[in-house]
Amino acid sequence: MTETSRTLVKNLSALEDGPVTVSGWVDTVRDQKKVQFVVLRDESGAVQLVNPRTDDTAEVAETISGLAQGSFVTVTGELKHDERVKLGGIEVKLASLEVVTAAIPETPIAADSGIDKRMDWRFLDLRRPEQNLVFRVQTTLEHAWRTYWVEHDFIEIHTPKLMASASESRAELFEVEYFETKAYLSQSPQFFKQMAQPAGFGKVFEVGPAFRADPSFTSRHATEFTSVDAEISWISSHEDVMQLHEELMVAGLRAVKEKHGEEIKALFDVDIEVPTQPFPRIPLAEAKRIVAERGYVVPRDDDDMDPEGERQIAAYVKETYGHDFVFLTDYAASIRPFYHMRNAADETITNSYDLVYNGVEISTGAQREHRVDVLIEQAKEKGLDPEELGFYLDFFRYGVPPHGGFGMGLSRVLMLMLHQTNLREVVYLFRGPTRLTP
Amino acid sequence: MTETSRTLVKNLSALEDGPVTVSGWVDTVRDQKKVQFVVLRDESGAVQLVNPRTDDTAEVAETISGLAQGSFVTVTGELKHDERVKLGGIEVKLASLEVVTAAIPETPIAADSGIDKRMDWRFLDLRRPEQNLVFRVQTTLEHAWRTYWVEHDFIEIHTPKLMASASESRAELFEVEYFETKAYLSQSPQFFKQMAQPAGFGKVFEVGPAFRADPSFTSRHATEFTSVDAEISWISSHEDVMQLHEELMVAGLRAVKEKHGEEIKALFDVDIEVPTQPFPRIPLAEAKRIVAERGYVVPRDDDDMDPEGERQIAAYVKETYGHDFVFLTDYAASIRPFYHMRNAADETITNSYDLVYNGVEISTGAQREHRVDVLIEQAKEKGLDPEELGFYLDFFRYGVPPHGGFGMGLSRVLMLMLHQTNLREVVYLFRGPTRLTP
């Protein structure tokens, strides 16, 4: 790919003094009597432009005086290394400045604007270096995962998001007008990634959107989110899934630390830690005892954890093992979907887990029930109609290997990695019950 | 990741004779008086199992006699290299055979089943080695593209598929019940990938679903498809986009040829060709003249090509330049969306192109109009209401760099690469006007 003649800002400091062309947008202007300073930003960084006012530079000076913040410009000038310049020890003495697109002078958001206002103007909010970094980290994280998968012979699938029926629960389903009938938006690729198992694909992954008509307004839910899914054949138990899962998290965090560690420290004051393997594993019942000993009694009687319980057990794990991750295992069958396999020795618990990262659940994984008669019984127990599940149950009637996998929220991982408290800060364009724009 | 103790079939031939464990499904059984043969298949290949009938092997023999095709089994036995065995020159003499899940004996599809029937039983259809290969090729192709993008500092984005309004045309829009209001499914990430430009992201890519409520039944349309999108800042013209595009195609095809070339030749009788650069570029008006000289007059008076015209110009390019690709350029403004930039010297044509591969259009690319006043005029000309486009037009009011990009159908590329005549053969689960299952 031929780059245009511009130099990326991040590459300037490695150049020798001399003529350069840089393109980007105007971050700030300091228009002084004897000299003008412009901070120019592009996707890679910021650089100071300087224009001493003389008769020769009067034309450029006039343009700068009229520059609205945010305007996109292309400049040429002389690069000069100068240790006194705070911004990277370099500056560009302007020779020419072309305004490519002038911004209108109003700036609808400011540094202290609330999250809702900033979401209204997300494309301006994303110009902040922290936001730009979030999505470069996302890119690196996903690529590390995919590289791991590809190197381990996984097949990438794209499952349909339009379905004739619910994938799991009818409760949080979006309905679509589909020609003469109705369709539903996929809540997860669960059924379709499982389909790859009787199809003989062995190991599959998908990164794609999932939709939940969840009317709740929390800092960590969205009606549309990016789901990271894997499913593998011939496992012995959910332990095999957990091993895959922890290797992926290690690969992802290692790549992020290597490529962005310093910048994350500078902009978010966060030290990215590459976790050690194996991650701690704690059966849920034991986790509840530990949490109770710390003085917190989970206010649920359905054998599940709650968010505060997750934070407490994560704090315990951090104190005890120095680890940011913990697998909570052995969830009760009563609170797990019908397709989770039950423990052979204790029918009341499942071969499943949740993965908690920095105190918040990011994923659920499990071995799946692949014996169709057992599966039908478990569906009935949950009040589901096997007739309606017909197409799914067929996957198990013509031969299927033992299998399991997990689904994980991409943005949750990013949110927790970068110590953000709101999912909205790490999603390109958030979707919630009252948020469909921009 | 710990693999289970099984050996993948593809790895058997490199092993020395000795004990092995293999897992997979039963492809065929030949149950003879003195010896039984089973062809076992897994995600990596097929191997012959042999069981000479003796008193010692009677138990295994009985199991094999009752084996339904498609059952998933785990076997142990002695690997033996034997040149006389047609299937890879190896066989496994059985010691044990465990039926993990028995298939029901009916096989709902056969080798000669029609495409609709095979789609009903897609998970069985996908067991065919050709189908398995399609998705391994897809995996390699996408990973080669993403690796190119990541190495060239692109940012990966996930744009929302739920929108408050149409992205382009109201005509082919799916409507979603969204709490108290309506939402629409994204027809393309067009507006949102453009948003990354004023956001200062520089270069972005996305691979994700797109939805078109197109009621037509052709061999190359679907109501849901995987769209491959890129958008880059600071281009001089659509030529920069075409250069990016051809480098991606070369990177993708090179990776596919290297990893799967021989297998594609064996299963599809197709020689994957890595194209040379630059790809031929032909302005549309010239393409129509060339096609007319070949005796085909495009039966349209709107300056567009038609599918037969695309085949004809592709045939001309193949004969003349020996090339599988051709960029058709300079499409008339009358048949392009309002956001395509017009040619500065001739307002009637756009800075846009279509990419034709093996005779079929796989992509449209263009430089975008980034001057908001011009953009508004062009929208009005197309009968669009600038009010309704408000959120999109805002992207251009606060500064934006010149930019352009393309959108490409993933499955179309695969279909044409593997010389398939129907998109349904290369889509994991096809969605059409009357197809929402499985």
Indicate the topology.
2 copies of one chain form a homodimer.
Chain A lengths: L17 E14 L3 E8 L2 E8 L5 H8 L6 E10 L8 E12 L13 H6 L1 H4 L3 H23 L3 E2 L5 E2 L11 E4 L2 E5 L4 H6 L7 E9 L12 E10 L4 H31 L12 E3 H10 L13 H15 L3 E5 L22 E6 L2 E8 L4 H10 L8 H5 L8 E7 H8 L21
Parallel strand pairs in A: 3-5, 6-10, 12-13
Antiparallel strand pairs in A: 1-2, 1-4, 2-3, 4-5, 7-9, 8-9, 10-11, 11-16, 13-14, 14-15, 15-16
Helix pairs in contact in A: 4-6, 7-8
Reported for the largest beta sheet of chain A, the result is:
8 strands, mixed
Give the CATH topology of the largest domain in chain A: BirA Bifunctional Protein, domain 2
How many domains comprise the coordinates of chain A?
2
- Per DSSP E runs of 2 or more residues, the count of β-strands of chain A stands at 16
If you had to describe this structure to a student in words, what would you say it looks like?
- With 438 residues, the first copy, chain A, is α+β, with helices and mostly antiparallel strands.
- Chain A has helices at residues 58-65, 115-120, 122-125, 129-151, 190-195, 238-268, 284-293, 307-321, 372-381, 390-394, 410-417; strands at residues 18-31, 35-42, 45-52, 72-81, 90-101, 155-156, 162-163, 175-178, 181-185, 203-211, 224-233, 281-283, 325-329, 352-357, 360-367, 403-409.
- In chain A, β1 (18-31) and β2 (35-42) form a beta hairpin.
- In chain A, α4 packs antiparallel against α6 (238-268) and α7 (284-293) packs across α8.
- The radius of gyration of chain A is 27 Å and the shape is elongated.
- At the A-B interface, β1, α3, α4, β6 and β7 of A face β1, α3, α4, β6 and β7 of B.
